[in-house]
Write a structure and sequence with these properties.
38% helix, alpha/beta, five-stranded mixed beta sheet, 3-methyladenine DNA Glycosylase II, Chain A, domain 3, globular, Rossmann fold, TIM Barrel
């Protein structure tokens, strides 16, 4: 049974050291009881207390990991209902379903294309996470797995009966695939397989009561790494089930449903994209699509990235000097912040102009130009510090620095901080940069 905040407090060192980020041990205990922090944040908790607090400190949704080689897809370990409360941690894995009946050559072709797919989004490479191999023809299942493995090293989900699954696992030594699925009829056999091969196991049931009953039985058998299949049905039914399970796990600490879920997005005529998008937002851990197409995966990957970005930590690029269009010693130096959207807006416009430029990216804690300036994170002192820290003076002979138009007010202060530099004020919008470079410099 979960401990209350007061009960947890009695097991803490009660030093009020503040190293956990909270003013008192009681405040930390209350957050721990609410599943909003991890016990590891307290550096002085005793080993005896750790043992007693294990249940209360464990995340309400169990962490499940699917591995292959050095690649890993994680799901679970979530602590909040809504992203803005804190953040979502582990992005749902996007998998492409491959049926064994497709044939070896067709499988290799499909998997090779999906495996090679990569899209760069604000400096990050987004890719397909793995493949779900289904034994719709049991006799060809082993060959299908070998064909998939010849074309990709990414993690796998295995779909089939206990006989097919066992033969498939025999060909995946050293890996930790996700196995689908244990139900009321075969749960004992599937539990034995999951334990023997140390795999995670999907649990399938018609209702939440069925799922809860099966997870209890599987836990007694020693299977702790479980994933819930919420079934098919219309979008409203899927949404209601996934939300109810999330609420029971997080708000009620209902451990029998405290596991990530899997969603099969297999609708037709674009319905699969809608099903997958809903699953990304509410609250699937693994999503399996029946087809691969760049125009299907691109928006889903971008949506996932946006939802699973910490709302308190904007997407950032590394501060430093970026060379665009092979700048020379007399090329101008443009300044911007390290907010990724700002950086890529500026960089894309400069690159499109074809003109050589040094782009000096200043650490503004991931904020845009105006936001950073208003917060005191983008000022003359920080700009001058970046100029000196990254040694731009050693790269140019024409010491001309161009500030974003929105912070023209800083030009005088920057001149004082950087004697010998000519400070120019550029346009307010990135789209006007090419014209500025051609006519004003």
């Amino acid at each position: 049974m979960a401990l209350s905040g007061i009960q947890i407090y009695k097991l803490l060192p009660q030093t009020n050291c503040k190293e956990c980020g909270f003013p008192t041990c009681l405040a930390f205990a209350m957050k721990l009881a609410a599943k909003q922090v991890e016990l590891s944040a307290c550096p002085y908790v005793s080993e005896g207390s750790k043992t007693q607090l294990a249940e209360s400190s464990a995340p309400p949704i169990r962490l499940i990991s699917v591995k292959a080689g050095g690649l890993e897809v994680k799901a679970g370990n979530e602590t909040v209902m809504f992203r803005h409360e804190k953040t979502f941690f582990n992005r749902p894995g996007l998998f492409v379903r491959v049926k064994s009946s497709l044939g070896v050559e067709a499988i290799k072709d499909l998997v090779t294309k999906a495996d090679a797919y990569k899209v760069n989004y604000v400096g990050m490479d987004l890719v397909v996470d793995g493949f779900a191999v289904e034994a719709d023809e049991e006799a060809t299942f082993t060959e299908a797995i070998k064909a998939v493995r010849s074309a990709t090293k990414r993690p796998l989900i295995l779909i089939g009966n206990e006989f097919a699954i066992k033969s498939g696992l025999d060909n995946l030594s050293g890996e930790n695939p996700l196995v689908y699925a244990a139900n009321e009829a075969n749960w004992e056999a599937m539990a034995d397989i999951a334990k023997k091969y140390s795999t995670s196991l999907v649990v399938a049931g018609e209702s939440l009561d069925d799922l809860a009953g099966l997870t209890e039985k599987l836990k007694v058998k020693g299977c702790e790494d479980l994933v819930l299949d919420l079934g098919l049905g219309h979008l409203g039914n899927r949404l209601a089930k996934s939300t109810q399970i999330r609420r029971l796990a997080i708000k009620k600490n209902f451990r029998t449903l405290g596991f990530p879920s899997i969603t099969f997005a297999n609708g037709h005529d674009g319905q699969d994209a809608i099903e997958a998008a809903q699953a990304i937002g509410k609250y699937s851990g693994f999503i399996v699509l029946d087809r691969f197409a760049p125009d299907l995966f691109y928006p889903l990957l971008v949506l996932r990235q946006n939802i699973y970005t910490d709302p308190q930590k904007p997407i950032q690029v590394q501060p430093g000097i970026y060379e665009i269009n092979s700048p020379k010693a007399d090329s101008p130096v443009l300044v911007t912040t390290n907010f990724s959207i700002t950086y890529f807006s500026v960089a894309n416009e400069v690159e499109g102009s074809g003109l050589p430029v040094w782009l000096l990216v200043t650490d503004a804690e991931g904020m845009s130009v105006l936001t950073a300036w208003a917060a005191g994170k983008f000022d003359s002192e920080r700009i001058a510090k970046s100029v000196k820290e990254f040694g731009i003076s050693d790269k140019v002979t024409k010491k001309q620095l161009v500030l974003p138009g929105h912070v023209a007010v800083l030009s005088g202060e920057v001149e004082e901080e950087l004697p010998g530099w000519e400070i120019r004020v550029g346009p307010r919008e990135a789209v006007d940069i090419p014209s500025f470079l051609k006519h004003a410099l």
